[in-house]
Structures are given as C-alpha cells and as structure tokens.
Amino acid sequence: MKSKIMKFFSDLGRSLMMPVAALAACGIILGITSALLKTQVQDAVPFLTASVPLFIITTLNKVSGIVFTLLPVLFAISIAFGLAKEDKGVAAFAGFIGYYTFLVASSCMISTGIMDFSAMKISNILGVDTVDMGALAGIMAGLVTAKLHNKYHKVQFPAAIAFYGGKRFVALVVLVSMTVIGLVMPLIWAPISVGIDGLGRIIRSSGAFGVFIFGTLERLLIPTGLHHVLNSLFRTTAIGGTYHGVEGCLNIFLQFLDQAPLSDMKPYTQFLGQGKMPYMLFGLPAAALAIYRTTPQDKKAKVKALMIAGVAACFVSGITEPLEFSFMFIAPALFVFHAIMGGISFMLMSLLGVIVGNTGGGFIDFLLWGVFQPGSHWYWVIVVGIPYAFIYYFVFKWYLSRKKIVVSVSDDDDSDAKSDEKTNEGKKSGSNKTALQVIAGLGGMANIVVVNNCISRLRVDVKDMSLIDEETLKKTGSLGIVKTSDTHIQVVYGPKVEKIADAVRAALNDKDCAAEVEKVRDEKPKSTVIISSPMTGLAENLSKAPDEAFANKLMGDGAVVTPKDGTVVAPDDGTVLFVFDKKHAIGFATDSGVSMIIHVGIDTVKLDGKGFDVKVETGAHVNKGDVLMQLDLDFLRENAPSIASPVICTELKENQSIRLINEGEIKAGEPLFAIDTY
C-alpha cells in the first residue's frame, strides 16, 4: 500500500510539472515585460514608450499573463495525460471534456436556486458562470479522467455497439461522471473551501516557523520528487493564500504584480523563489567548490566537469538536482544539513521583508523579479547569500574530509553527450549506445512498462525491480537512483534527461534494438580472478559496511567480512605492499596483479596498534593461507565501533567489476568475490 501511494504521488508530481514548466516560461516573459512597463524604466529608456515597442511589450505582457487564468484546464489536461498508461492523447482530450463538463454541470445546479450559493465564489470560466474552485477543479477532473481512461480505454462491446467501445467510451464515461460530480460539488464545496482556507491561514499564521517548515520540506522531498506536489498546492490553491478572490501564491503574485503595491505581495512571495536564492546562488556553488577541493588529484578533472555543469544549471536557471544528487546518497548528513539551511533561507527572506516572486531561484529570476522590481529588497539575498557561501563551503569541506568521502564520476560521463548526439550505424534515429545501456540497466525491454521524465529525472515503471542493474545505470552518467516503490524507479540525469528519455523511447519502439539490449545484458567477462576470504566469519556486500567511505566504495570495491576467528591469512599468493603504522590494515598485491587492502575493523586506526599482532613485513612474499596477523577480537570488539573488516580492491579498471561469490558464513581461504574483466 505504501509503495502504491508513493508511486501515485510521484506520478502526480511529474504530471503537474508540465503546466508548471509552461508557467515558468511565461513568467519570464511576464517579468521582462512588466519591468519594461515600469515608469522608472520607461523614463530611463524613452524609446520604450514609442507606439510600436509599447504595443509589442503590452501584447506580450497580456498574452503571457492570460496563461495563469487557464491553470485549472491545463492541470486537467496534463494530469490526464501524465497518469494515463496508454493512449495519452485520448486521455488529454477527455481531460478537457471532463473539466468543461464539470463547469457546465455546476452552473446548471447553481441556476436551480435549490439553495443559497451566494457564499461561494462564482466566476465566468471559459464562458460559463460557475463555482470557482481554482486549480483544484482541474486537478480533480484530471485525476478522475485518468482513472476512468486506464480502466475503460480498451473495453469491448457487442458488434452492434462496438463503435462506442475502447477510446470512444472514455469520453462518454468521463462526460457522465463529471456531470454527476459537477452537480454535486456546489452542494458540498462551501465547507470544503472553508477547510482549505483554514489550513492556509494556519500555515500563514505560524509566521516565520511555518515558512521554515515549508522550506525544509521543499528540499527534503527532492529525492522522492514529491516537492512538485507541495509546491503546486501552495502556488495554485488557497493553501498558499487568497487575494481579491485569486488563490495560490504564484497566481496572486503574477496576476497582481502590476495592479497592487508590491508590499501587498510579501505574504505570498515568502513561499516562492526568494527563499531558494541564498543557497542556489551562493550556498550550493560553494559546496561544489568544496567537493572539488576535497577530490583526489586523479579524479579532479572529471569532478570539475560535473561541478561546473551542476553550478551552471543551479545558478542560471535554479535546477539544483545535478548538484544535490552528487552528494545526497554518499553523504546523507550533508543533504539533511542542506535541507535545514533551505528552511532557514526561506525564513530569513520572509523576516527581512524580501519580495521576489516566481518559481525559480536562479540568477535570471533574481534579476527579473528582484533587481528590476523597485521595493523588492533584493539586496538582502546577497547579504544573506555571502555567509551562506562560507557556511556551505566549510561544512562540506570539513565533513567530506573527515569522512574521506569523494564524489565518484564514471568515465562514461565524458562521452555521454557525444554518444547521445550520434546514432549507431545501422540503427534508427535515437537508438544510441547510452539508450541501450539505460534499457539494459532497467532490466531489458520486457521489464519496462512506461518511460517518462521531468526536468531532471527519467521516471520509469518496471515489472520487476530485482532486474534493475544499478551499476549499468551509473555507467550511463546517472547522478543518482531513487526507488519510490516496488515498480517505480527514478534515474537522475540532470538537464540532459530530455535527450536521454527521447533516445530510450525511440529505442523501445525499435524492434531491432531488442537484440542489442540483450547483448549488453548478457555480455560475458573475458577473464575472472577469484579472491579468497582472508578471515573466517560473516561475509557481506561492501555496501553494508558500517562506514560511509567504504559502503559507498570510495576507496575501492570488494566485500566486508566480520571475523569470528582472530587469524588473518593471505587471500592469494602475493606480496605485502605495506603495513600501516597503526597495524590495522595491510596492503597486498596478488601475483596476478590485483592490488588490495585488508582493513580490520572500523576506525581501528585510533587504537594505536593495540589488538593487532602483525606477522609479516613490507615486501614479504607469501603464499595463499599464510598468516598475516593475529587479532585480539575481545579487545577490538570492546574498543572499536565495529570489527566489520573491508577487503577491497583499490585499482580496478573501468572494464572490471566485483561480483560477490559467498555471502553469509565463510571460512578463511574460501572464495569471497570475483573480479570480472569485460
């Protein structure tokens, strides 16, 4: 049940992104034209008052502004389209029919005079005088349409009435259903609207604390994608406020920007882009610098490219996920810190009286809605942002250095853009190497139900989550992987996701690609080296190591063994490369050329060599099974955080991967993992 709920809200958030993206684009045009219509700007640039430029600016201003009055119908269409499993165009058409039917049916009920409807807001919507539920009416119509479409779009009738089956029946059943809902809604909407208004008042009456909670949740929900739902509720419904009959903080701001004093917009912009600007323009770029500075020299070039791309997306357009997903999973504590700082940022902007609207928090929005708007108090963004940069930099640098965490970047990242632009010879357009790898990583063509995407994520419904190959997906340039349910996975790619999604969909529709995908999935290793366990104990996947640096494979890949016997032996014939001064770890190279570290316990470096009796010296050649050291397990259990001991390969090549052979009880000398070379 939980996974189904998460999947529903994830899909809903994705569907809401289509009209929200349109609003953001129109908002930029509205912002530019509104700024150009300001008296102060026109006095400075008299050319703008000439008839032709003024006509063009005024027209663009009105055209871009009208989109916000169409938000409910956009929601009805986009939700029906986004939640439909097949025949999405039919669902979108039915979504519009359903919404308009609802408007007319509600109008008919109001015209009966069966009760006093004067307490409700009645507006002319698409030419119909009806109950004004704002964006909620469109959301409801879209949800109902999607549910009915998925249930009935393949229904079959007897031959005599077969014409009305399938896709045609969807429109009929939606029309009837929304007629019933439209007739009933005016009778029950009054108490519902009072409840929604009350919720909005509670949040707003919470003052700065309420804004802090909103800002923190807005970041914490990023991994699930549900932040789109939270933002949409505040931006388009009464939860975000009501002003002269208009609901939703974004709707209010954009519709009344030129009609009301800017100071009146303050209660509404506190839930908009202004709260993001200190960490988008200053905090996260500083964090990216810290990530780069703490990266080992041999990986800096690739991490630098990743950070530059992430900072550009964040700073210019307010797309933060490429940066956030670079550290979200390898350092979750930093992401929690970032979310709390996000809440503080929203709260400070509200307390300092900043009035900068629109949805984004990037530099473009900062200029259009802040610097170009007299009375916006935009300078506080800089005043707060500079300390944010220092705080983010030093916190990230301290934590990453202390935990020895390094952002890992696949070698394939450098070639992703090129491979996305070129198709393989002999295949149809879009069937490129990256797409084939993505499909293979998702478990193959037969495992994929539907592929969608939002601004930064590939969102895929699959049949069997166990078939997902995360390592293959990482090689495609994935910044992160989120499994929101047993059948839904989100693969984070950042701004390039649209290109990848198009290529994947094209490949899925190309039957010739099926064989190529299976080749990727079924690729056999050219050679395999078996590494034996140096200890008797409990063997587990390295990801279960009780230390972030080891679990995230930042120092290498391998396995972890929790010893039950105090003897550590050579895993293969080879040479002792070094013995750490604190005696807690040994560097080892097998005669076959595998470089390894046997690291006994976690944080055992702090024991100053106590509990370890090393039997070999640096440079010694040993045979498999020879004793390397003896452990005082009782002492180690009492004084170390954990005796779980990572056994890792430190210099794997890009065409090599680790495959765990034994998991659970294992004896020293038994096969632990394999190194497959492709």
UniProtKB/TrEMBL annotation:
BP term (GO), one: phosphoenolpyruvate-dependent sugar phosphotransferase system
Entry annotation: catalytic residues: C454 (phosphocysteine intermediate)
Record domain PTS EIIA type-1: where: 547-651
Pfam families xrefs: PTS_EIIA_1 (PF00358), PTS_EIIB (PF00367), PTS_EIIC (PF02378)
Domain of life, source organism: Bacteria
GO cellular component: plasma membrane
Main location: membrane
Protein name (Swiss-Prot/TrEMBL): PTS trehalose transporter subunit IIBC
Taxonomic classification: Bacteria, Bacillati, Bacillota, Clostridia, Lachnospirales
